[in-house]
Design a protein that fits this description.
Elements: E1 3-16, E2 19-32, E3 36-40, H1 47-54, E4 62-67, E5 70-71, H2 77-83, E6 87-90, H3 104-114, H4 123-137, H5 153-165, E7 171-175, H6 183-200, E8 203-207, H7 211-217, E9 220-225, E10 228-234, H8 235-240, H9 245-252, E11 303-306, E12 309-311
Parallel strand pairs: 3-8, 3-9, 6-7, 7-8
Antiparallel strand pairs: 1-2, 1-4, 4-5, 9-10, 10-12, 11-12
């Protein structure tokens, strides 16, 4: 597999009345074609901002975004529009991401028209393409003229996936694509996404807070904490051998459907470090049971604990 995406020291800061919010701070990783990289962490850790910055929906503060060997960090909106066919996003809320005034047919066709893949006047081709993509994502043909409010959450998300699929992209940011769906529907949509990946070779950046989901779908996983990567490892190794104290606490909180199971939870106590103008040192130190004075004295380097397994922790 060849490298499709590489992110180098990516930063995204936002100005606030109280200071500079470090939403994404010095993040680096690479992705191979056809693979899935899971991104997990608590709400507010920068997962969604990371995905949107890679797509340049947010302009990066600094760092590099290298896609297909080209540095796209400084691309203009016009250049990004041309690249948008290859880089797409599936949003978290399928209702909010769809135009309530557009039918299923119009929504899917719009992607083709905007990217000039099919002319708006060529109604026969548009109709054929729309039905083709509806069939691929499992939407019944009778719903072709339905509006978003007439569909349930699962079907709305399938429309969103079909809209992305119509462009045949290479890289897709999946921003918590199943978190707004009923539990009974989540597995269906996840299986659909995996089937499409196997068929078309999509590369997924899969953002979620559901550790069970990320274990099921990901090849590698990064754990984020307050804008930084705390740990990165192959999915199996992360669950078998978590190293960072934060990762261990997250994994200990996964519910087990067994009333007799003795869950050894690792409670996180202490005050959250503010992501606004954070001081040097480990941002998890105030909640870490193993923290020492040197943890807050300087920036913590990333080190490799085994091949493909890195962690940002002095105590690792």
């Amino acid at each position: 597999m060849s490298e499709l995406l590489r992110v180098e020291n990516l930063k995204k800061y936002f100005a606030t009345p109280n200071g500079i919010l470090h939403a994404v701070d010095d993040v680096s990783f690479s992705m191979e074609e056809g693979k899935t990289l899971g991104v997990v962490g608590e709400s507010g850790c920068g997962k969604s901002t990371l995905g949107r910055t890679i797509l340049k929906l947010h302009e990066p503060t600094s760092g590099k975004i290298i896609f297909e060997g080209k540095d796209i960090t400084g691309y203009s909106p016009k250049e990004m529009k041309e690249l948008r066919q290859k880089m797409q996003i599936i949003f978290q809320d399928p209702f909010a991401s769809l135009n309530p005034r557009m039918t299923v047919s119009d929504t899917i066709a719009e992607s083709l028209i905007i990217q000039k893949l099919v002319k708006k006047s060529d109604k026969a081709t548009l109709e054929k393409k729309v039905k083709e993509y509806m069939d691929l994502v499992g939407i019944a043909p009778r719903l072709v003229n339905s509006y978003p409010h007439e569909l349930d959450g699962g079907r709305r998300q399938r429309v969103g996936i079909a809209r992305v699929l119509a462009l045949n992209p290479k890289f897709i940011v999946c921003d918590e694509p199943v978190s707004a769906l009923d539990v009974s529907i989540r597995a269906q949509v996840l299986n659909l996404m995996q089937d499409l990946q196997e068929r078309f070779g999509f590369t997924y950046l899969f953002i979620t807070h559901d550790l069970s989901v990320v274990k099921h779908i990901s090849d590698d996983i990064i754990v984020m904490y307050l804008g930084q990567i705390a740990e990165k490892a192959p999915a199996k190794r992360l669950f078998e051998n978590p190293v960072h104290p934060y990762t261990k606490a997250l994994l200990s909180a996964i519910p087990v459907p067994d009333p007799d199971y003795d869950a050894k939870r690792i409670p996180l106590e202490g005050e959250l470090t503010s992501p606004i103008d954070p001081a040097p040192g480990c941002r998890f130190a105030k909640r870490c049971p193993y923290a020492k004075p040197e943890c807050t004295a300087k920036e913590i380097p990333v080190k490799e604990v085994e091949p493909g397994h890195t962690v940002r922790c002095l105590m690792a």
